[in-house]
Amino acid sequence: MFHFTVPKEVPRATWQFAAFMDDPTCHTRKVYMSTKYDYDIVVTTTTTYQPKNVTVVPVYEPQPGDWFVAAYMSYWDEKVQQQGLGHKCQYSIGAIALWSQIDNIVNVPVNYQTRLRTSATTTYYKIYVPSGLLSFRLSVWNCSFTLHNFRDINKPCIEAMYLKGRVLPTSSHFHSTESKTLTTNASYSFIEPSPYEDSYYYLSIVSSSIIEFDIKVDTTGNLTLIHFILSVCVRARVCTHIHTPA
């Protein structure tokens, strides 16, 4: 059993697996490795005397926290396979994980319009969603190029835009979330009707040029406050109509 701790704000993690035997005369065996964190990953490899076969498994948008990898070999009768041999074969399994963490992600204020500027081809922003919110809407509009040679009304100002809760969204060819494009005179709103509570949502903006855009996050309702008002009204038996907060 292997244990890895993936930090927050990692767009991609890569696992490498290898299986070895200590003598070239040993019987080759299949090795199975599996892990599960929202989805199954099953890897099959074969033991070798020298590290020739390394299985590489990329995982996009990995959930932060503990990851466990279970490794096992299929049953075989050691007495039958090694009868008459003086050497007892030893098998070993190795696993490593690699990832890069995105630093200094800009925090987007809630219920307040602001203007942001990208700093790379792919720029990430984060929005903190507290407990009790019924929903939120993230709106992006008024996108503009900062360089004059990119001022083309028909060219997408934002070439791809993604929003996802708890993990950094990716635009990988192998694991792609549905993206949105935006021209200079267009707008788009992401609506999350039942957001994760006490969590960060991450917005990814992809553009081949440095751009600026307006953004605002509007929240709706506060379940904690609504439940408190309802409980007071039920106990007092005086409420005839309740206005839920926006």
UniProtKB/TrEMBL annotation:
Keyword Oxidoreductase (UniProt): no
Family designation: Belongs to the TMEM8 family.
GO CC field: plasma membrane
Entry-linked InterPro entries: NGX6/PGAP6/MYMK
Main location (coarse class): membrane
Subcellular locations according to the entry: Cell membrane
Domain of life of the organism encoding this protein: Eukaryota
Membrane topology listed for this record: Multi-pass membrane protein
Keywords: Cell membrane, Membrane, Transmembrane, Transmembrane helix
Protein name: Transmembrane protein 8A
Record flagged with keyword Cytoplasm: no
